[in-house]
């Protein structure tokens, strides 16, 4: 089915009991797009969201939030691959900057925290 909201958001996909459920495609009024699984009206399971600014998240969702394994690619070339909890980097992950600098290690609540290795663009390593 198709459902267009007064705010300009549009959903095309499967429904259950008048709620987004199953496979679907959601477009927000700002131009952001999500394609993937839904449950109880929210992204749930695997999906890809392309934000209005061009950033892309691909991975698992729980109740409309990044949760579990995923990757986030920024338009500026920065990338993160790893674990998420409630939309924040949380657990083990790998962050890469366009310069070649990278960090691999633990994250908590969106920030580097705990054990990790940071390799700078000149090759120097900090553990």
SSE blueprint and pairings:
Blueprint: E1 2-4, E2 10-16, E3 19-27, E4 33-39, E5 42-50, E6 56-62, E7 65-73, E8 79-85, E9 88-96, E10 102-108, E11 111-119, E12 125-126
Antiparallel strand pairs: 1-2, 2-3, 3-4, 4-5, 5-6, 6-7, 7-8, 8-9, 9-10, 10-11, 11-12
The coarse silhouette is elongated
Helix residue percentage = under 10%
Strand content: over 45%
Output the CATH topology of the largest domain: Histone H3 K4-specific methyltransferase SET7/9 N-terminal domain
Q: Tally the helices: what do you get?
A: 0
InterPro entries: MORN (IPR003409)
Organism: Hemiselmis andersenii
Pfam family, one: MORN
Protein name: MORN repeat-containing protein 5
Attribute tags:
127 residues; mainly beta; Histone H3 K4-specific methyltransferase SET7/9 N-terminal domain; twelve-stranded antiparallel sheet; 12 strands; 67% strand; MORN repeat-containing protein 5; MORN; repeat
Describe the structure in your own words.
This protein has two domains: 1-64, Histone H3 K4-specific methyltransferase SET7/9 N-terminal domain; 76-126. Strands 1-2-3-4-5-6-7-8-9-10-11-12 form a twelve-stranded antiparallel sheet, with no helix packed on it. A hairpin with a 5-residue loop joins strand 11 and strand 12 (125-126). By secondary structure, it is mainly beta. It is elongated, with a radius of gyration of 17 Å. The protein contains no helices and twelve strands. Helices cover 0% and strands 67% of the residues. It comes from Hemiselmis andersenii (Cryptophyte alga).
């Amino acid at each position: 089915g198709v459902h267009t909201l007064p705010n300009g958001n549009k959903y095309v996909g499967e429904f259950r009991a008048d709620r987004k459920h199953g496979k679907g495609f959601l477009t927000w009024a700002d131009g952001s797009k999500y394609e993937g699984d839904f449950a109880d009206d929210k992204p749930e399971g695997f999906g890809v969201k392309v934000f209005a600014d061009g950033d892309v998240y691909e991975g698992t969702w729980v109740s409309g939030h990044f949760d579990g394994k995923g990757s986030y690619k920024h338009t500026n070339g920065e990338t993160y691959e790893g674990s998420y909890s409630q939309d924040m980097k949380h657990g083990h992950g790998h962050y890469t900057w366009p310069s070649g600098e990278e960090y691999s290690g633990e994250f908590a609540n969106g920030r580097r925290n705990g054990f990790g290795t940071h390799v700078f663009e000149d090759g120097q390593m900090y553990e």
